[in-house]
Amino acid sequence: MGVVLRWPGQPVDEPNRHKTVVTVISKISAKPAGKQACLVVIYGIDLGRRHSVDGAAIVLGRSSKADVQIDQESVSRNHARIINTGKSIILRDLGSTNGTFVNDELIDEYVLRDGDFVKIGRTIFKFLTGSNIENAYHEEIYRLTTVDGLTQIFNKRYFVESLERELSRAQRYRRALSLILFDIDHFKLINDRHGHLAGDQVLRQLAAVVKARIRREDVLARYGGEEFAIVLPEIDRANALVFAEKVCRLIEQTQFKFEQNVIPVTVSLGVTANEAASDGPESFIKRADERLYEAKGQGRNRVAG
Questions:
Q1: Residue 164 among the catalytic residues
Q2: Residue 172, CB-side half-sphere exposure with 13 Å CA sphere
Q3: What is the pLDDT of residues 221-272, one digit of tens each?
Q4: Which of 34, 46, 98, 144 is deepest in the core (most CB within 10 A)?
Q5: How far apart are CA 188 and CA 226, in angstroms?
Q6: What is the pLDDT of residues 194-225, one digit of tens each?
Q7: What is the reported pLDDT for 34?
Q8: Residue 113, phi then psi, degrees to nearest 5
Q9: What is the rounded CA–CA span in Å between residue 225 and residue 47?
Q10: Among 162, 147, 153, 184, which Cα is nearest to 284's?
Q11: Rg of the chain on CA atoms, in Å
Q12: 160, 293, 266: which is closest to 219 by C-alpha?
């Protein structure tokens, strides 16, 4: 059965825009947002930058006159406005072409709550509020060192650190350890045909689909661009190959949609396991990468290992 997720940043056909807008007015929490609040960029240009929303109103958009400028073609000149009433903070779309999204939902007007994700164009913000906004901000910056802002899975830095740790443990106790590297076949064509917003949607949906299938102890990370990695502690090569085949078929059978278009997506996967006590993280990754390219050379949409 195909999996379809709603996606922040999904463009809306202009003629049908007013028919498809979902207006979401969230419930105001027991502790409504007050003056101490900010937006933190967790994906896009100026990663980690904090924008205060203490003022009565701020405009987000592509215009150089916007209070928060987002210089992207997919962003309208005056895209959205944030209104601070003192008791709550309201995000309002200003009739933008591609819409304003909160937590994967297209909105017209929305009362923001602590931890909400706001997507405008290809930029994702996290809304923070509370009595100690400085602590919340620094905690979010720390989280950004381990989590990829777009896909919300681990990033390359965390992956490398985890692989080093698990490889050391596997060698010390003579335990099995496997690594899968995979990437999206012909991803550039997806961007060229459907646009980068579609590419972002595919990346995030794919991450969500695979994340739902791994164990708690496994590490799924975005290794770079359209490439992903899975560290599998206590899993030998034979079982890693079986799991990789399941992932390959799962992605092939999943329905990826952007606007009203279904986008066929397949992946190629390379699998390796710890083979020698002298294995280091670099050689481990290199071996998996070589098998990934072997899978691509054999025709893509397959596993090599």
A1: no
A2: 6
A3: 999 999 999 999 999 999 999 999 999 999 999 999 988 889 999 999 999 9
A4: 98
A5: 9
A6: 999 899 999 999 999 999 999 999 999 999 99
A7: 52
A8: -125, 155
A9: 16
A10: 162
A11: 21
A12: 160
Closest CA to 124 of 104, 146, 94: 104
Of 134, 226, 234, 275, the active-site residue reads 226
Q: By C-alpha distance, which of 193, 104, 106, 120 is closest to 152?
A: 104
Question: Of 42-56, 177-191, 283-297, which range is least confident?
Answer: 42-56
- The residue assigned the tokens 């397959």 is 302
How deeply is 153 buried, as exposed, middle or buried, from its count of CB atoms within 10 A (0-12, 13-18, 19+)?
buried
Residues whose CB is less than 8 angstroms from the CB of residue 237 and which lie 6 or more positions away in sequence, other chains included = 178, 271, 272, 273, 305
| Closest to 96 in 3D by CA, of 167, 17, 33, 152 | 17
Mean pLDDT to the nearest integer, 168-188: 94
Distance CA 279, CA 167 (A): 8
- Residue listed under structure tokens 């996967």: 269
State both tokens at 89: 């903070």
User: In this structure, how many other beta carbons lie within 10 angstroms of the beta carbon of residue 139?
Assistant: 12
3-class SS of residue 20: helix
Question: What are the structure tokens assigned to 264, written together?
Answer: 């066929």
Between strands 105-107 and 123-129, the pairing is unpaired
What are the residues whose beta carbons fall under 8 Å from the beta carbon of 134, sequence distance 6 or more?
A: none
Residue at 289: amino acid letter: D
Dist. CA 185–CA 292, nearest whole Å: 11
**Vertex 96: Cα angle to 7 and 205 (nearest 5):** 10
pLDDT at 1 over 90: no
Give me 246's structure tokens.
């399941």
